[in-house]
Amino acid sequence: MPPSKYRYIAVDGPIGAGKTSLARRLAERLHGEPLLERPGDNPFLPRFYENMTRHALPTQLFFLFQRIGQLGELAQLKLFSGVTVADFLLEKDPLFAQFTLTGDELALYQRIYDALSPQAPRPDLVIYLHADIETLHDRVRKRALDYEAPVSREYLAALADAYSRFFYHYTAAPLLVVNSERLNFVDSNRDLELLVEHIAAMRGGREYFNVGE
Fold this sequence. Notes:
By secondary structure, this protein is of the alpha/beta class. Helices cover 49% and strands 13% of the residues. Helix 3 packs antiparallel against helix 4, helix 3 runs parallel beside helix 5 (103-116) and helix 4 packs antiparallel against helix 5 (103-116). The chain starts with 7 loop residues before the first strand and ends with a strand.
């Protein structure tokens, strides 16, 4: 069981890394509550994957307002008496904006983000799930979500690289970098227990976890 300071844990990683699955399992294991993104609620997302340039701004703003609303409810309802595990990190939100927006649209997004983000609580621990491109691409194909059908291997590669650069410089909260190549947190209780034990033993601001090592 993690020490009491880890009341709000954020799991993040590129598409296909397994963040939602891990957030659910970890919340259940810690007798806490999951706080999950709702991509299916975003009406712009299917159009974004079909034409990223045209639909990037409304897609990004919808997600930003959705995430701010979820985190605002979390703070307002004082759910921190227990453990909350989210499958997103708000501070990573501008990564997608810088990845898909340019010029005036990016400037507009940044102004809105800067105005809203101070309202959100900061995680006590961030878990970054890393996987190679072939693994990410294979997982996206296997889950066969209609709106993800246009996602290309090249897009995933560029996105994964952006995530790597973001978390390389991330210092706002304790960070655990997890190699999810061999981490089967859906079916393997052993893998999940090993991760929980590592979280409980964390002492530094940045640590690494590889199953089997």
